Amino acid sequence: MKILIPTKLDKAAAGTLAAAGYDVVQNDNDPIEALVAANPDADGLIVRSEKVTKGIIDALPRLKCVIRAGAGYDNIDYVYARSKNIDVMNTPGANSNAVAEEVIAMILAAYRYIVPGDVTTRAGEWNKKKYMGHELTRKTVGILGLGNIGRMLVKRLQGFECTVLGYDHFLSRQRAINIGATPAELDEIFSTADIISIHVPGGPSTRGMINAELIGKMKDGAMLINCARYGVIDEDALRAAKKAGKNIIYCTDVHPKDAAAQQPSADIADLMLPHLGANTKEANKMAAMRAASQMDAYFSKGDTSCVVNAEKPSDLNPAHLQLAAMLGKLAYRAGGSKPIRRIECTFYNNLRAYRKWFTPWILEGAVPGAEHGLMPAAAEASLREHGIVFVAREPLDDKLYDDALTLDLFMEADGEQHKSSVRGMLVDGQPVISRLGVFDHLYAALSGNTLVLRYKDRPGVIAVIGQALSQAGINIDNIIAPRDPASGDALAVIKTNLPVSEEQALAIAQAIEASQYIALSM
Asked: Which residues belong to any copy of the ACT domain (predicted)?
C-alpha cells in the first residue's frame, strides 16, 4: 500500500506507517497537484489544510482513504469522495491543548506588553514606566464553551489561582462544576470577568453572538480573546465601543481566511496572530500519530469507526434522516430552547433496524452549533460531551405506527425540568409532524415556513392571526388548528409563503395571549 503525505506533518506519521510496511511518500515542498501526478498509485492520503478536490480524487484511481490530520475536514470534497467509495476521516481533539496554551500565552503577552516591549527595546527605547502591566494570578476568567479546548483551558488556569466562570448552554451545572468552572450566564460573565475567552463553534447559531449589548457590559480594562471562529464577535460593535472610549484589550487568532491579507481586525486588535492555535510541534505530532494509527487500522483491520462520510444503508430513505433533524429542531424550539439534559427517541416499524444512523441527524437538529456530518459513534460521543444522555427506546407493543419517529427532549432551566415531545413520519415521501405535545393527528409539512401558536381556545383568534400576517404581506398556505379538551387550549400550525420573523411572531403571540409560539423555516 502506498500512502501519500503532501503536507508539513510531523515525520512520526511517515515513520509509523513505514515501520508497518507501507510505502510512504512525504513532501511538503511541492504542490499537492504535482505530488499526486507523480504518485497516481497512492492508496491513502493524509493532508492538513491542502484542498482535496474532485480533480485530486480523480487523479488517484487507487485511492481508498483520505485522513485530515486535524478536526475540520471542509477542505476535502467528502461527498464526491463517497461517490467514489473513498472513506474520509479526521483526528478531532489533537489540537485542544495547543489552543488552550495559546490563550494563556496571549493573556500574558497582552498583560505584560511582551510584543511592544520587545520591539521598542530593540529600537533603543526604555519604556519601563509606560509598560506597567497586570498579573493573571487570581483574575476572574470567563470561558464561553466548555468543550475539549475550554476544559483544557480550565486546567491550565488552575495554577494561576483564577476564579473561572464557565458558560456552555448544553452542559449541566454539575458537569461544569466537575470540570472546575462555576456555571454562569453570559450577562454575569461579561459584567464581572477580567478576561473572557471564546471557544464556541462557528456557524449561523453563533455568528455575532458577542454583540454590542454584551460588549457594553464589560469592565474597563477587561480582555476579550477569540481563538474560536471569525464572526462570533461582532467586530463592528467592538470597534464602536473602543471608539467611544471603552478600554477593552482584544486578542484574536481567527480571520475571514487563513491567507496573507490586510485583516479586518487590525485596527481594533491589541494582539493578533495568524491562526497559530494548533501550530505546535506537539499538536502536529499528535495529529500525525493519530492519522497514522487510523490509516493503519483502516487497511490492516478494516476499522472504519473514524470515517466521517460513511455510506448510509442503501435501503434507508434519506428523507427519514432529514425528518429526524427537523423533529430535533422543532422539539428544541418547542421546549423554549432550554439546555437539553436527555434525549429519548422511539423508532417504529422498519426504522428500528437503522437506529444508530439517526443519532447524527438528531444531534444536528436538536443541538444548535453541533458539528455536522458525524458518524454515529462520534455523534454519540458529542452528545456525551454536551452532557446529554441519549436513549433509543423500543416501542410499546400496543403502539402500531408506520415508519415513524418520536423524539422527547428533557430540558432544564432555573432548576426546573421540562419535556418537549414530537412525533413525525413521511407522507408521500415528505417529512411531516404528526404530534406536537398533546396535539395529535396534525400531519403538517415540516419543510418550508411554519408558525406555531398555542393559546386558549376562543372565537376570533384565527382572524387576528390572519389579519396580522396579511398586514405583514404574508400569505397563509395552510392552517391546522386542533383543540385539546383537557386544557382548553388550541394549537395553530400555520404554513406561510414567506418566513415569519421572531419579532412578527412575538407580536402575534402577544396579541392573542399565546402561551407558546415558534417561528421556523426549514
From this structure: 450-522
Kindly state the greatest CA–CA separation across the chain: 85
* Grid coordinates belonging to 135: 498579573
SS3 222: strand
For residue 359, which of 350, 369, 349, 371 has the smallest C-alpha distance? 371
Q: Where do the H-state alpha helices sit in 370-439?
A: 376-385
DSSP-assigned letters across all residues of 250-273:
EEE---SSSSSS--TTTTT-SEE-
Rounded to 5°, angle at Cα 97 from 96 and 100: 90
- Backbone phi, then psi, for 2, in 5-degree steps? -105, 130
Contact between 374 and 308 (Cβ < 8 Å) = yes
Give the bridge partners for 224, in sequence order.
196, 250
pLDDT of 400 above 70: no
As a whole number of angstroms, the distance between CA 192 and CA 255 comes to 27
Element (H, E) at 277: none
Contact between 44 and 299 (Cβ < 8 Å): yes
Q: Could you give the CA distance from residue 269 to residue 253 in angstroms, rounded to a whole number?
A: 10
Q: Which residue has the cell 453572538?
A: 209
Contact of 206 with 186, CB cutoff 8 Å? no
Question: How far apart are the C-alpha atoms of 89 and 298, rounded to whole Å?
Answer: 10
Predicted confidence (pLDDT) per residue in 230-251, tens digit: 999 999 999 999 999 999 999 9
